[in-house]
Amino acid sequence: MKQIIKRLSENSFQLLAMIAGAVIFSFLFLGFTEKQTSTEKLLGFSTNYDKQEVTITVVTTGCTTKADFSIKVSGSNITVVRKKRDMCKMMPDAVSFTYTMKEAGVDPNKAYTIKNKFVANPNLANIP
After folding, report:
1. Could you say which of 51, 53, 97, 101 has the lowest number of CB atoms within 10 Å?
2. What is the pLDDT of residues 19-34, one digit of tens each?
3. CA 117, 77, 69, 107 torsion-angle sign
4. What's the 3-state SS for 5-36?
């Protein structure tokens, strides 16, 4: 009887350890693969009425692309959101991406407020 209880408790512990390991692995995996959606700190934001373009200047550490951002327009507010984190390890550098005003959802004949924070030093952009 004692052997049966001992085996049951050993098997329960192993099962519990496997389940805990699977849960921890799942959280870690989701944390690294989850898409980021956060307000981006900008180095610059400009418009060109003649070309009907909006240009954002952001920080890259080597893997940032235009597709990593979306420009959200809500009423008279514009917010630049980073959808995917740059996981590369290069030194921070400035990069600019240009969108048509139509792509960005910006009306060229309307006044807007940019809701993003601005930084002048690319090295400070990734500091919360």
Report:
1. 51
2. 555 545 555 554 444 4
3. negative
4. HHHHHHHHHHHHHHHHHHHHHHHHHHHHHCCC
